[in-house]
Write the structure tokens for this entry.
Amino acid sequence: MSKARNSLTRTSLVHLALIGYAIISVFPVFLTIINSMKARNAIFRNPMQLPTPETFDLVGYTTVLGQGDFVNYFQNSFIVTVVSIALVLLFGAMAAFALSEYRFRGNTLMGLYLAIGIMIPIRLGTVAILQGMVATGLVNTLTALILVYTAQGIPLAVFILSEFMRTVSDDLKNAGRIDGLSEYSIFFRLVLPLVRPAMATVAVFTMIPIWNDLWFPLILAPSEATKTVTLGSQIFIGQFVTNWNAVLAALSLAIFPVLVLYLVFSRQLIRGITSGAVK
Amino acid sequence: MSDIPSTHDEMQPIRRPVRWHVGVFLLPALIVYTAVMILPLIETLRLSLFNTVDGQSTFVGLGNFKVLFGDERWAHDFWNALKNNFVFFTIHMLVQNPIGVALAAMLSLPKLRFAAFYRTAIFLPTLLSFVIVGFIWKLILSPIWGVSPFLLDVVGLKSLFSPWLGKPNSALIAVSLISVWQYVGIPMMLIYAALLNIPDEVIEAAECDGVTGWSQFFKIKLPLILPAIGIISILTFVGNFNAFDLIYTVQGALAGPDGSTDILGTLLYRTFFGFQLQLGDRSMGATIATVMFLIILAGVSLYLFVIQRRMRRYQF
């Protein structure tokens, strides 16, 4: 009896601690979103209150959408992220297939060479990357960002995908070969569909740092036409520091897509991490 | 690297046709990775040995490093940034990783209800961009808005409040803790995964021997998740010595007040691109990037060749 009560207190303490930390994690986001929908006076007078009919005001959102070119920023971020992920997945899966399927001289060396990029951040090469982009005339284009993010994503993609490709049965591939499938059809028609779950994991891992990156957009593509949403909101907020309605609305707009994506992919992401995809 | 489509295998005397497809599979990834990542990295390392003398790029050997470490214009900023970076890393190791381990230990308790909900909530900040995180905390900690004095008042500690981000003594700690808040999800998830991988038999055997609760965690589980703790430590190290975005959004490129939050990433940015009155300097930028590269390389090698080899791993 006493043991049962003991474990009950322990469980409630654990819940208390977890609820406490969960509140710390979510509270700032929550605070931003509720205040973005309030009138200026209400933001200052009573920051903790939910918007009521009297204090409800979307003036911040109208300022943001009227002033900043956020539709364009979203479009840029979207193009960069989607194209980079597609290239990372395609190139990464192809290389992973070559490394895990064929035995050739330099196989291990090639694997190690590609693994350097997992640990050494691409940012350290920025000085020369900018030089190269200037030389090839790619500065202030989305192509520059796509190239950098593709290179940044490939090492981890190859690493995770080749682990998964080793588990695809050899019998299946050999059956395909006997039926006269070329190596390319074996890859695209047999292997790729089987590693789809791993591809989804890689996609989620690749997506977050690309969408959130500030460094490369700031350096390689700061022009108005190529700003990503991260850089755009950084600059917008910098200009509107004193307009709290606009700042809070801009922050909420920037949180929104991440929140939606997270709620859609959180299962995939958490399963990916806990199944040991990143080791 | 060009011998990928090997024309014949040494093991087999029979000549096989050239396997072009191996090359086709490897080349796109190799080309992009080499051209955009490896070559610029090597070029940056090379640039750190050159400087502009009389308008001409000249080989100066280790001269740039001598300037960076010893010249009074550079040395003060550099050593300050390096010291701050170590403080930044130490705070992460002392606060972020223990909290991550503790949260993971609680989440992995068997039959815990709402575990998925807690996990989702605690991992949320990790996905937000630095811009969002930086500005939200700037607003919350701002004395103008009064949210943090209000919250401190609720727990009766209002007298403790001060504009932490604006004071040279506390700014670095405040920024580090914001970064901890954002990233605690990563150690939590990796440790959580490691804890779930411990087989039930091990835990049951411990319970049969009367090892439960705290002592079970420290004597049984902790040794088994040490490799995962090693991984989160090296990830934290690489991430911290490469950090830039959060400081830039919270404190600006000058990493104020008075350079008290300046770390290597912000120093690199200011040096390479210039800021306000300071002109951009490519060679010194490359030199700082090289120093960052060497620090990260040293950390990664220490982990791979010393720590990881000595760590005992258990096979189940």
Q: What stands out?
A: Chain B has a mean pLDDT of 85. Chain B has two domains: 1-47, 67-310.
